[in-house]
Input
Amino acid sequence: MKPLVKHYGNKQVSEFGPLSLKFIREKWIEAGHSLSTIRKREGQLKAAFRWAAENEMISAETANAICLVRGLKKGRSKARNPKKVKPVPDEVVERTIPFMSPIVADAVRVHRLCAMRSQDVINLRAADIDRSQMPWKYIPHTHKNANRELTREIAIGPKARAILIPYLDKQDNPEKFLFSPKESMKWYEEEKRRNRKSKVQPSQTCRKKKNPKRKPKDQYTSCSYGKAIRRACQNASTTTTITGLSENKKYEFQVRASTTTEWSESIFATTDKNAARQKLRDTFRWIDKTTNSVTLVWPYVKKATGYEIQYRQAGDKQWASVIIQAVAFAPHMLRHAAATEVRRLFGLDAAQKVLSHSNPQMAAHYAEISFETAAKAMEEIG
Output
């Protein structure tokens, strides 16, 4: 909503008309927002005007004029079409798991195994799980369609049960959320202390602020949960281990990022701590080294599709190179992955029940038809 505040923040509501809305819409298009995002924001803006007119804060004429503006249609504007949500491959998920806290990693695994929505995962409580039968039945205390008086029932299978049992066993209050940011931050602090190599000074025994402005909460939000996954993807994309190095030799390294259009400028690092060129040690550096391998980390580059690591022994002219593919996925892609697997193994009806969709077309939208199914059919009849 920044264009709205920038261009109309100091004007009267009565001065904001249909042409003003179209102007703001063009600014959203110029900013690169997708068609679905623009439609959503436009709907929110119209809803705000309707609410204001309903409560006699503005005239009905002003609200009606705004609501008469027709929405953008696919292929008839400069707005880019949104990307189709694809299921995330399990290999990508497993690659990012080591860069998450155990709490977030277990939440991601349960999310993937049970085809939950993000809100179902972050709302998971012992009080909402019926363990009197197999499989367990999870009935969220709140969910997306609660206002429609629909019941959401989620079956929890053996793999997900094995993940949840340790959390359930240590819960003293069934109303507490199983996956807590507070516990996750506690783990991070313990991990930092465990990996500390220098001796802890008395003044550094506890460096917590007495009254911090921001404290870890007892429950993740959809935003913070997604942010934790995004951070893990970035760390997984900017960390690698180079093996097969000669023992007791000094090496030089370069890294550059690949985007859809060009390569970025290379940055330099070396295993020689005393080298004069080690000025970028804080940005591109090694964090672990053995006799024949080194683990490197480097800064994340926005919209990078991959990275090229070049390395050589100090003094050599020729570089060897390794390509690292960037990984990225959003929480809802886990639900798409689970739905696609259920459809492949048990059919569309089963996928519809697992996803709790009343419309089979919506289930088909989530659960893609696998190419293997088409390939098998063509092998038999083609």
